[in-house]
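STRUCTURE:
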């Protein structure tokens, strides 16, 4: 019998060698986005978080455009058309730095651009998608309202016909990039159901107000959109969008990015804790040598790797055209909860140092409070999974 080959010890940073399953293009995208994030984002993100904004979002949009991450999973119009898994890997590497920065890319590519790509006219696509892909134009997505979050079908924003035009009135809330956007995809109730409109933000009656005093997702721009008699030609309507299923299809694309992004946040917290535990000395030894610390690290290791496996499997299903929206609910429900556990444990390992911006753990921990809420709360995704396995809806 031939001698068995001895297995190498697992890599603490990729314990189950999940990245070995990535294709060459996916690894190349991982490396380029990771290098960009380390060079252009990581040195400044704590300052942006503390300031509660992104100082120069236009410059950041151009940098993201040059990197090629805006709408990278879409085909044509200057978009790369890469695999869903490759897009997920990019989201992972961006959120490893900060959830707000991944949100910038997700809202541009998976909400605003995806809505135009899926439901827009040929003229709308030609006018907006190449400029958004390059970062020369910024988009936002207006669905959530002050009184309509988990139940978007109850929205109060209305669009009424007035001759050949449409007139929009209403308010949208928690809109990423709202105050810097050149165009807003706005969803409104009409006499014929919910419809989507592509609204240039310079249109009279449109206003965007920055939401201040956030304690989460601070390295991000969040706004309230106010539409007061915004008059649009019929050519501003997204012709392919009819009913609530249209915006929900866009949301599912953004949720998919969160499935991967949460892995990045969790990985950063785990790696920060692993490094800190190995260098922080108490009672004459590194705290990594204490049993309670090792148990925390073991739990974190399992959460990070299980989340990574879930993200990769859902990505492969999506690439095969076999990903149901409840698969994405599974990933968001499981991976965000895992990332929250990892962030909390990492913060505990860091002790008092964990509450400062010198370390990334509390920043990620606070950001994940938003990630757990937007694009469907934890409870909403739990009910989606419950319906998937029982066949009975608990929503109505």
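SEQUENCE:
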């Amino acid at each position: 019998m031939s001698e068995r080959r001895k297995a190498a010890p697992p890599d603490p940073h990729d314990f189950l060698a999940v990245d070995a399953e990535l294709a060459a293009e996916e690894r190349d995208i991982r490396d380029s986005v990771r290098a960009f994030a380390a060079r252009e984002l990581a040195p400044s993100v704590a300052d942006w978080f503390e300031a509660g904004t992104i100082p120069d979002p236009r410059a950041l949009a151009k940098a993201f455009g040059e990197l090629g991450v805006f709408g990278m999973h879409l085909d044509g119009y200057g978009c790369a058309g890469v695999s869903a898994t490759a897009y997920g890997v990019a989201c992972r590497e961006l959120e490893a730095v900060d959830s707000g920065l991944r949100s910038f890319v997700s809202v541009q590519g998976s909400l605003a651009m995806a809505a135009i790509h899926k439901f827009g006219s040929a003229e709308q696509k030609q006018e907006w998608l190449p400029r958004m892909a390059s970062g020369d134009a910024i988009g936002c997505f207006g669905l959530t309202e002050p009184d309509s979050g988990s139940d978007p079908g109850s929205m109060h924003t209305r669009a009424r016909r007035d001759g050949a035009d449409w007139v929009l009135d209403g308010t949208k809330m928690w809109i990423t990039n709202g105050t810097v956007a050149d165009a807003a995809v706005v969803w409104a109730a009409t006499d014929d159901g919910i419809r989507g409109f592509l609204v240039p933000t310079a249109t009279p009656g449109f206003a965007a107000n920055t939401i201040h005093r956030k304690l989460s997702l601070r390295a991000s721009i969040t706004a309230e959109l106010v539409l007061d008699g915004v008059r649009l030609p019929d050519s501003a309507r997204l012709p392919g969008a009819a009913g609530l299923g249209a915006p929900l299809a866009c949301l599912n694309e953004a949720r998919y990015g969160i499935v991967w992004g949460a892995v990045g946040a969790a990985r950063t917290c785990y790696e920060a804790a692993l490094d800190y535990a190995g260098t922080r000395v108490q009672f004459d030894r590194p705290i990594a040598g204490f049993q309670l610390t090792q148990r925390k690290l073991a739990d974190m290791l399992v959460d990070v790797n299980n989340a990574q496996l879930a993200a990769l499997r859902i990505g492969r299903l999506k690439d095969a055209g076999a990903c149901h929206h409840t698969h994405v609910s599974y990933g968001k429900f499981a991976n965000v909860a895992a990332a929250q556990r990892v962030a909390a444990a990492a913060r505990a390992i860091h002790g008092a140092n964990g509450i400062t911006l010198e370390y990334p753990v509390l920043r990620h921990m606070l950001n994940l409070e938003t990630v757990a809420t937007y694009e469907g709360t934890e409870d909403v995704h739990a009910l989606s999974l419950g319906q998937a396995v029982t066949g009975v809806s608990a929503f109505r």
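REMARK: The longest helix spans residues 245-279.
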